[in-house]
Design a protein that fits this description.
The chain is an alpha+beta fold. The protein has four domains: about 160 residues, MoaB/Mog-like domain (Molybdenum Cofactor Biosythetic Enzyme, Chain A, 3-Layer(aba) Sandwich), CATH 3.40.980.10; about 55 residues, Alpha-Beta Complex (Molybdopterin biosynthesis moea protein, domain 2); about 80 residues, Molybdopterin biosynthesis moeA protein, domain 3 (Beta Complex), CATH 2.170.190.11; about 70 residues, Beta-clip, CATH 2.40.340. Helix content is about 20%, strand content about 30%. It has a six-stranded mixed beta sheet, with no helix packed on it. Strands 16-13-17-21-20-18 form a six-stranded mixed beta sheet, sandwiched between helices. Strands 19, 22, 24, 25, 26 and 28 form a six-stranded mixed beta sheet that branches. The protein starts with 8 loop residues before the first helix and ends with a strand. It binds adenosine monophosphate (AMP) and magnesium ion. The site of magnesium ion has 5 residues, from loops.
Amino acid sequence: MCLVAALTFAEARQCVLDRVREAQIEPAIETVRLAEAAGRVIAAPVAADRDYPPRPRSMRDGFAVRAADLPGTLHVIGEIRAGEACTLEVAAGQAVEIMTGASVPPGADAVVMIEHVVVEGAKVIVDRTLDPGANVNPQGCDARCGEVLLSPGRRIGFSQTALLASHGASSVDVYLRPRVAIVSTGDEIVEVGETPLPHQIRNSNAWSLAHQVTRAGGEADILPIARDQIDATRELLQDGLHADLLLISGGVSAGKYDVVEIALKQLGAEMFFDRVLIQPGQPCVFGRAQGTFFFGLPGNPASTMVCFEVFARAALELIAGIAQPSLYITSAPLAVPFRHKPGLTRFLPAALNADGTLTPISWSGSGDIPSMARSNCFLVAAPDQTEYQAGSLIQVLLP
Ligand code: AMP
Ligand code: MG
């Protein structure tokens, strides 16, 4: 049941970003310990608590010297180890043995590498010149005291964890994870623990979606399966609308028993799109009801996965407080020729190989879960290019 004109992939994605941004959802904030902060979203600015480095720092093992003394033979007046307060001062004709990470002593303006000197007792012979500043990180070159280094809306990856740790942040303010309700629909669907009859299949979409939700920073809540009747479906969707985001699998195509859009309408839904020129996932639905955004994801497992990655994930990330939702599309040379029919942007299972080339994975259609499980990315075929030669670049979506 098409309610609005079909959108292109780019239009549909922009629609998701615009609608969710317009809603200006302000997630609540909680404080978590650094050990629990991986993957969470920063909720308050983190500023440098001092200059980084706090003193000029040696980048090498070697000798702290005055660049103007080189080349020359210098008198070694002592050593400075990493972790040792610096008490020495380097005068003309002198050098101090220094280790990587140690503070460069006053008077010295460069470090000559240990590999580039000859040591003779208390003397060091340097046969080369150095520019002032060579092998020295000046004070504050990484960050100045008070400078904002992490802004709200940034996900905490391992480098952000390093930054928080280096600043002594044993706890950190993050946004609460959005709760994402997942409703699967279909008379043929049984729970994972059940043995399906020949005309039944197990509910894989709820689980792939829950995994995708967790990766994107949400908390998945799998609701019971909705059978293909309007009333039963509406009741479960109503439950799902209490969450921060509702994901529905199946029941959005043009079949006689695809009742999701009817049930959503009865719940007062506003539809932003219900068809996108992509494959798999053409009948994808996006809208809002009772203040909650929802996606109706076509039930074929590949359609559900793709529509989540390219549309629902962006909405979830925005609701989670992420400033810039991610979509990693790059390009890679094809290992073999590829062709497809024009008109749709296709997201097909593919393998990005160790040599950087891309191989499409043959599949029997968007219900082929084993082929999806053999892939590690999606080949993205443009709607206006039907033929791709081996070796030519094609877009790749990295999930
Ligand atoms: P639908 O979008 O409801 O027309 O479903 C399209 C196809 O996806 C059908 O072959 C369904 O059996 C399959 N399907 C629907 N829901 C699920 C699910 N939760 N898990 C696995 N496959 C599903
Ligand atoms: Mg169905």
